[in-house]
Amino acid sequence: xxxxxxxxxxxxxxxxxxxxxxxxxxxxxxxxxxxxxxxxxxxxxxxxxxxxxxxxxxxxxxxxxxxxxxxxxxxxxxxxxxxxxxxxxxxxxxxxxxxxxxxxxxxxxxxxxxxxxxxxxxxxxxxxxxxxxxxxxxxxxxxxxxxxxxxxxxxxxxxxxxxxxxxxxxxxxxxxxxxxxxxxxxxxxxxxxxxxxxxxxxxxxxxxxxxxxxxxxxxxxxxxxxxxxxxxxxxxxxxxxxxxxxxxxxxxxxxxxxxxxxxxxxxxxxxxxxxxxxxxxxxxxxxxxxxxxxxxxxxxxxxxxxxxxxxxxxxxxxxxxxxxxxxxxxxxxxxxxxxxxxxxxxx
Length: 347
Ligand code: SF4
Hints:
Blueprint: H1 8-20, H2 27-35, H3 41-56, E1 59-69, H4 98-110, E2 115-120, H5 127-144, E3 147-151, H6 157-166, E4 170-172, H7 179-182, H8 191-203, E5 207-209, E6 212-214, H9 220-233, E7 237-242, H10 259-272, E8 277-280, H11 284-287, H12 292-295, E9 301-303, H13 315-325, E10 328-329
Parallel strand pairs: 1-2, 1-9, 1-10, 2-3, 3-4, 4-5, 6-7, 7-8, 8-9
This protein binds iron/sulfur cluster.
């Protein structure tokens, strides 16, 4: 499909209509989204919102991250504060106790999360880490009824089957960037290793959570390729991170994103993956800044609370943003969750 310059104000609505009728975005169309001018942004957002509204209405789903094992990772991912090549000052500990994992689930439930994400820093899980997950997941599900996402690094098909058997609903394993760009952000494992893990997860019968990090020196072409790879894998839940260039990591100080570009990225992910959950993930506070609410017209999910080794904005600020937008938090079901928005201070 050609995107004609004479109809700039309607081309995004036409594209969104076609997407809702089953059209798969082409590479050129995807690039046109990323390269669109800033004065087209309101129209692009409105078009993406049409797609979001069709599949998700005005609902928002929360995910809550628990860094169950921090630092100590033998891999060299250049964006990551927990890698062996990072000097970032972060907590370092082995897998948390049953009580701490259970307490994290309590907080997740209290904050209205749909999903509790158990994350460890590792190339892949060892036997005791898999056993810890097998032990805690049934207890969390019984006590709090949360959906569970496990992020444990590279998995063998057997490990994936064990996670499925203990009740894990989905596994997170991000592609992070395109296959072509992967070698410049990590040398200790490959893009194909990550694809193999996602395929093992799918074969075991779990949902896929996989996304990327924008702002690692990639070209627009790389963003499009990653986005399309996620589409081809049928990923159900896509976290879109914007690089937080943490001091002590090889990518420290290297991010040059602006909020308008970040919004265009979110629109691209919505238009290319219309039925997938699109989550605005790490870095939203520092890169979208005052435009965060506009991101919710394309995305339908957020992490509530802190990220793995960096602070997120206060949960109350997110509740307020969603309330102000007229959106409702759900667990993917009909019932809206009541949010604990603080009363305004007396004048
Ligand atoms: S494998 Fe995961 S925890 Fe380890 S360095 Fe890479 S991103 Fe960080």
